[in-house]
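Lab meeting prep.
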Amino acid sequence: MATIVVQTEINATVERVWEVISDIDNEPKFWKGTKEVKTLSIEGGVIKREITIAFRDQKCLQEIQLKPKETIKAKFTKGILDGTKIITLTSKSNSVILETSWDIKLSGMMNMFTGVIKNHIKSGTEQAMNSIKEEIEK
């Protein structure tokens, strides 16, 4: 498994940061590695969706759980990615720490390339977090 953690501090309220990041249909706007999202169902607080990732236009299934103003947990349930991406908000006095942590690997035969894509995912996460910060602070 590749573990990746990226943090950024955003000068805004938790409510404002949550408003932007919890609009999960808008994910491709910030996360360039996500080309398309399609909600399949919403059952008991779990959003099941299909995402198309930039890596060879692969489709993956995810289960998303939103804990308002605290976390967004995305579990990859089918496809080339296996693991989780968790986005966490931590309130400070006049700002919010936005953290994204991945615990991920490529599935099946592609597992041997997990190390190779780790830096790519980290770079994409840093870019996404900066785009989110810029959108909120403008």
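Slide two material, second protein:
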Amino acid sequence: MAKFKVAMVDYDYATLDAFRGEVERLGGEFVHHRCKDIEEAIARFGDADGWLIQYLSPIGEKVFASCRKLKVVGRCGIGYDVIDVAAATRHKVVACNVPSYCEDEVSDHAMALMLSFIRKTVVYTNAVKAGKWDWKIGAPIPRLRGMTLGLMGFGKIPRTLAPKARAFGLNVITHDPFLKPEQAAREGVEMVDFNALLARSDFLSIHCPLNDQTRGMFNASAFARMKKTAVLINTARGGVINTADLARALDSGALAAACLDVMPQEPPDPADPLLRCANLVISPHVGWYSEGSIINLQTLIARYVSEVCLGRKPEAVVNPEVLAHVTLS
């Protein structure tokens, strides 16, 4: 008989084999369904010890009050803004994420977005397909070497991106209120304040979480302090950018371009003015993806959730303060 029950309450993965394998390896029962909303998830999986979620939200008071057996919620990814962490803590539910599984993929994608803009690959591809074979269509193209890449945040992904950028001859600066000077020196990056990050960056790549402090922080005021030749790159969370302000900045020439892998609403409304901007490069929140990263992600989050169900402390806990009220070995 299974020792615990873990429910995958929403997903768009082609296979759940890695989830199932890890839960069953640790003695649990794995169940799943693509629930369309919170109410369906509660009705189907209100008796589960652990939930695995991909996009479904909000995982908050209603879930925790209704699912009395729930010990842990695991978010299949780095970001966990779909979970009301304070509510989870009040109900003594452990919240987990996977902070380390796709550093190479996301940093590669940020670099690819940057290169696709600076080398005008999208412009040239569209032109050639339209029957225009003319290198001047993409002019002017500045030299990349010697430009400055600014990193908003300096966690694991930007720390992986920095040496890749330096290999292309870019200078790297960063703003992260939690970064210590000795860490920055060790990584070979220059620490700057937020205003300097905005003013000095030729490329500004966002790598911070979405929370009350960062929501909408890249807005009209921020764009006005950036170079008109600057390119904004976001592979973090869509809500960090005020996209209405960004659309106006791109249309007016206040910014040269934006390269986005995330949006506040996913998928975005087809009528979103931002999608009509010619100087936008966009991909469908795919920066995290490789075949290897999927297996890594699924295995790790299934392990963390199962460990809590077994009374063990997992490697990644979003709300460590809950451990004062939950007995985990």
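Talking points for slide two:
Residues 42 and 72 are 14 Å apart (CA to CA).
The two ends are 23 Å apart (CA to CA).
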